[in-house]
Design goal:
single chain, alpha+beta, Ribosomal Protein S5, domain 2, Alpha-Beta Plaits, 4-stranded antiparallel beta sheet, 5 helices
Length: 203
């Protein structure tokens, strides 16, 4: 039986915002779809610059197809009262490649650890509720090189697989670049191997 390869995940279609108020404190939440830690760093810097007068800029994120890379940051709040409940909401909504930042403006009344956990949780949840959740597919790309006389055979395979060409250079020796859904990569690669003098370079 062929292995079923996971190549889709749920994430946000676009950035969204939320808010929660408790005893005078305001918790502004910002949720973003992200692809890398560099992108996360950029969003954090922008929020810290825009809301420079806020007391705390807490956040959590998940990256990876299965959300296997995650981090939570309390930014000076008592340990486990901010980043962890934010991350918990990302988990609850079943999304990955997502960053949620919650900015706190202190209202003069201490909320206690339980109050803080509730506030950060509700702010993050509000931002995620406002977002459209979508399914994204993961693709691999391949550069295929072969003699011109194999063109018809290669193009027939590409057409049968319903693929679109990204790039095509033809001459005595031809080079094509295709994009294919990750789970379909192995069977398509095996068919390419049957074509004489063809080389395939996956990435």
């Amino acid at each position: 039986m062929a292995e079923c390869i996971e190549d889709s995940y749920s994430t946000l279609a676009a950035p969204s915002q939320g808010i929660f108020r408790s005893k005078g404190s305001r918790f502004l939440a910002f949720a973003y779809p992200v692809q890398s830690e560099a992108e996360i760093k950029k969003h954090l810097e922008e929020i810290k610059k825009q809301y420079f007068d806020a007391r705390h800029h807490c956040y959590a994120y998940k990256l990876g197809l299965k959300g296997d890379l995650s981090r939570a940051n309390d930014d000076g709040e008592p340990s486990g009262t901010a980043g962890k409940p934010i991350l918990g909401q990302i988990d609850s909504f079943g999304v990955t490649h997502v960053l949620v930042i919650v900015v706190r403006y202190f209202g003069g009344v201490l909320l206690g650890t339980g109050g803080l956990v509730e506030a950060y949780k509700e702010a993050a949840a509000d931002a995620l509720r406002q977002a459209e959740i979508v399914t994204r597919l993961v693709y691999d790309s391949c550069e295929i090189s072969f003699p011109y006389e194999q063109m018809n055979e290669v193009m027939r395979l590409i057409k049968d697989a319903g693929l679109n060409l990204i790039k095509m250079e033809s001459g005595i020796y031809c080079t094509l670049e295709i994009k294919i859904r990750k789970r379909n990569r192995f069977p398509f690669s095996e068919k390419l191997k049957l074509i004489k003098s063809l080389q395939q370079n996956w990435r």
